[in-house]
Design brief:
Number of helices: 5
CATH superfamily of the largest domain: Glucose Permease (Domain IIA)
Number of strands: 47
Shape: globular
CATH class of the largest domain: Mainly Beta
Helix content: under 10%
Structural class: mainly beta
CATH topology of the largest domain: Glucose Permease (Domain IIA)
CATH architecture of the largest domain: Distorted Sandwich
Number of domains: 4
Distance between the termini: 42 Å
Mean pLDDT: 95
Length: 563
Amino acid sequence: MRKTLIIFFTIVSQISEAQNPYPQDYFRNPLDITLVLSGTFAELRSNHFHSGLDIKTQQRQGLKVYTAAHGYVSRIKISHWGYGKALYITHPNGYTTVYAHLQKFAPKIESYIKKLQYEKENFQLEVFPKIEDLLVNTDEVVAFSGNTGGSGGPHLHFEIRDKSERPINPMLFGIEIKDTTRPNILGVFAYPIGENSHVNQNNEKVKLRLIPQNNGDYTVENIKAFGKIGFGIVTYDRQDLAANKNGVGKIQSFYNGSKNFEIDFKRFSFDETKHLNRLIDYAHFKNNKSRIQKLFLEPNNPLSLYKDVIANGYLTIEDSTSSIYKLRINDYKGNESWLTIPITGSKSNTIKPKSIKTTNHYIYAGQSTTLKAGDVSIYIPKDTFYDDFFMDFNVKNDTLTLHNPTVPAKKYITMTFDISNYSQKDKDKLFIAKITGYNKNLAYTSTTKKGNTISSRTKNLGMYTVATDTENPIIEPLNFKDGDWLSKYRYLKIKIKDNISGIKNYRATINGKWILMEFDAKKNILTHDFNDNVISETKNNLKVIVTDNVGNNSTFETVFYRK
């Protein structure tokens, strides 16, 4: 084994000195089917950039997943949401490949992780095996594709990360995706910056009318502008074998023939991914469910995706001038689309001013702030927001209005409710809930109780209230009933749910011995695999205890027989 380790690290040292930072023939396709994508690298998602490729699995689960190159399993993580069942393999060239939303692992890995799950009596687990524990070869089956975690359907999420854990577009390593289709442009917007600037006599953001050209490019009607302005674009890419609207690879802008801005989506770090909310017009997204990518740099934008930026991407339009602004949008295969915006400099004395709603509370982004009203207090740390703004803050009874969801937060805001007016019995069942949707549904937020207060931390502005949950969770057997013989069954399935605060944890035993029950949080189904071989008796007493987020619990007990 020591010899194996010496060889491994010798190879690491040699390949780290290689000239090509993105080897083209090192990593193989992780599936043995033609790769068709439902999601591309750095695609814009809610509050983050997509960190890999989402590979379609023909609407099936259970496809063989191959290690992209030889190496060792360096991390295994199993969670109810997020990546679900995920496998991390570190390779001698220093890169790590990631395989997520898996149905299950290959037998030797499955055996390794199940042993630990039973030792720790927990389905959710994160472990970092030693190099010698789980060595894998190129073309070795390491897992089977699935739909676990936060997946919206069966697929394989595949990543390549560098030594600093930064995800890099796998297509840069020669992972082949058929794509001869040019990116599409859905919308373009002009942003006057400052009260004296305007576009088409308007100081507000202006949507420009796209005009598709016969050659596949785009233009807009000539705009009249003055002062400092910027632009934003709604764009997506589509590969040849799928209809999905995916992310683009690069956006460049040119002003009067000179390049003045570029966004290159080839690599990012997880520390910066939340700042996607600075790249996009966040308020527009929250109101319209469409992501405008701003082609200018505002203050407090730490993203590393930009280069060749002149004047922060802004244009200064003078009166009685003519100019041309062009955009080039590339996908990862080099297909490109162009947008031309002709601009006439025309100063107007009659412009529609920007509407700004004022309130009694002005938030300075560079300062910490504490707000109090009624039985509620709010603490906002320094640098929580990107910009200063007027905040709508008020409390009515036990309901808090904390502005609205159109302003993104970088840090957690702490809200504390005084509950001294409640009886002790009621206090035990209280939690803080976000009020969502047209029907004002209540969504549990993680709540901490201390004396006569309850508190929660959030990055989402909006409405919150104190809610009560006195209902116990529901436990229902799905494929058996009391007294059944289950000798021919492979799985034991139970549905658990909680209608108000949600499920916090569960525990299942047979004849007093803990059993592993995998939890599909999307379907609220617990599943035990009899092939775990923890049952040795004919008569078996099953006991399942489920607890919700305020401490209500239910117990389900039954007897089944198995030979």
